[in-house]
Amino acid sequence: MLRLRHFTYLLPLLLTVQARAQVKLDTPKLTAADSIALKKVQQDPKREFRGVWVATIGNIDWPQPHSTVDQQQQQLINILDQHQRTGLNAIIFQVRPAADAFYSKGREPWSKWLMGKQGQAPVPFYDPLEFAITEAHKRGIELHAWFNPYRATTDANYGALSADHITRQHPEWFFTYGGLKTFNPGLPEVREYIVKVILDVVDNYDIDGVHMDDYFYPYQIAGQKINDAAAYQQYGADFSDIRDWRRDNVNKLIKMLSDSIHAHKPRVKFGISPFGIWANKGQNVDGSDTRGGDSYYELYADSRKWVQEGWVDYINPQMYWPIGDRQNPFEVLMPWWSNNTYNRHLYVGQAPYRMYERRQSNYLNPAELPNEIKLLRTNPRVQGSVFFSSQSLTGNKEGFTDSLRVNYYKHPALPPPMLWLDSIPPNVPRNLVAANIPNTTKVQLKWDVPLEAKDKEPVYGYVIYRFEGTQKIDISSPDNILHIQYDATPSFIDTTAERGKTYLYLVTALDRLKNESDRSPAVAATIP
User: CA-to-CA distance for 295 and 273, rounded, in angstroms?
Assistant: First the structure.
């Protein structure tokens, strides 16, 4: 998906794609207006999507090669614990890197990056996706299942593919490009198959979202040709230009997925992370004032249309260029995307991985990524960030992760609501009581489940707030959020109370899409 050079075991495929994204960098510069805006920015919004990609292809982030099941599970717990401490509230977990699976309840073989061989189940058995969902939700973290839609192989070692891999069952569904097999998006049976693969996960797992990356038609390679002329002749009668037909093929899949996902589970979010440039203004009058690769002409991915038509709930463009870049400046791309969100969510893909590049980069400036976050927060049409990738973030290069934990993500945040999917909040939790647990400083909170909501949706979780003494009660700010739980159990124990203090507690209820109820009356507890 994304471009990394610092992982020595990364696949040649990813290295090739990274080379396409390289641009000449400039010293980061901000306009006077930007500088003023940064000084005024809200440091810690209550609603913000704070995500990270956890990549499994090539064992980039997880699992470490040759790990046992126990080691894999502990590695994943460690990853989630670290991101929870940083203040993140979502992970984008790669479950289908190449027509394979990191889950058991589906139709494709186990990924070779799980146990070392494609088709080999974990022993003793466990379901990695199910495990990841459970552990993420325990920590108040959403899990979005990340699929690569069209990639079928990552190298030319076809003999290592399992007997039940789809390239063996339906070789006619694929073309070979750059030595790799790719699903032919122009075949209706391919689109139907991919929808079924994704619905396996939607139906069988408690995921919060379906996420797709930027690989649609392959990134162009000099001297290579996409061998889809026969499919175009059979299915492209309505198009005089094969390029328009290819874009329509991708559009058809996105529309089918949007309709199918929401029909099966209306509360599951659908988002896509396209290449950071839709089109350059030099190519298209509606494009951004940039001079880089693009998704519309090169990948036949009309990402702007997907938002415009409301087919996706969020768009997550990969803006992996710094502020002040000579060709594709971050401060130009970000407002272009925010002006093309059409009332859907915009989460910006940010690049801590670039701090690890050996060549000199603006990302070695410790202020680069924080300044990007500040710029995002000046724009009300931007609802958050997603970082590539997990290992880059936990590595804390230039102290960036510390700056998130201490400054920008100091307080918990709820994901932004999606009112087009659900605008009805739960009712208020009832009969809250707080009691000091004898001989401890702990406070036990209990309450009654709210009355049924207007849409009859059950409560999904709660937010517990705590205020000290005479502090003014205000839940519009995140400063006093003590705990966010994705668990409908109507109780919580505060283990952080201090002796000699009096606290006021109150609780709100959440539904699946994180609509929040009004607050309960406050109750007091004094710690002796």
Answer: 11
Of 351, 357, 281, 285, which is closest to residue 323 (Cα–Cα)? 351
Q: What is the mean pLDDT of residues 325-341?
A: 97
Identify the domain boundary among 351, 378, 408: 408
Read off the pLDDT of residues 450-508 as tens digits, 9 standing for 90 and up: 999 999 999 999 999 999 988 999 999 999 999 999 999 999 999 999 999 999 999 99
Cα 376 to Cα 25, 41, 323, 350, 460: the distances in Å are 20, 9, 12, 11, 29
* pLDDT score of 35: 53
- Distance from C-alpha of 229 to C-alpha of 221, rounded to nearest angstrom: 18
Average pLDDT (35-48) is: 68
207 and 339 in one domain? yes
Residues of the chain with pLDDT > 90, as a percent, come to 90
Q: Is residue 4 part of a domain?
A: no
**Looking at the structure, do residues 402 and 446 belong to the same domain, yes or no?**
no
Q: CA-CA distance, 229 to 243, in Å (whole number)?
A: 11
Among 423, 416, 505, 510, smallest CA distance to 464 is for: 505
Examine the pLDDT at 27 and tell me if it is beyond 90: no
Domain tally for the chain?
Answer: 2
Does residue 58 sit in the same domain as residue 193?
Answer: yes
Which tens digit of pLDDT belongs to each residue from 427-440? 999 999 999 999 99
Does the predicted model carry a pTM greater than 0.90? yes
Check whether residue 373 and residue 492 sit in a common domain: no
The CATH number that applies at residue 39 is: 3.20.20.80
Q: Does residue 448 share a domain with residue 384?
A: no
State which H helix or E strand residue 84 sits in: helix 69-86
pLDDT at 384 over 50: yes
In angstroms, the CA 7 to CA 13 distance is 13
SS (H, E, C) 111-178: CHHHHCCCCCCCCCCCCHHHHHHHHHHHCCCEEEEEECCCECCCCCCHHHCCCCCHHHHCHHHEEEEC
Q: 469 and 325 in one domain? A: no
Residue 124 lies in a domain: yes
Residue linked to tokens 């977990």: 93
CB of 466 within 8 A of CB of 480? Answer: yes
**Average pLDDT, integer, range 370-374:** 97
pLDDT at 39 exceeding the cut of 70: no
302 part of a folded domain: yes
- Domain limits for position 374: 12-408
Cis peptide bond prior to 63, omega within 30° of 0 = yes
Is residue 144 situated within a structural domain? yes
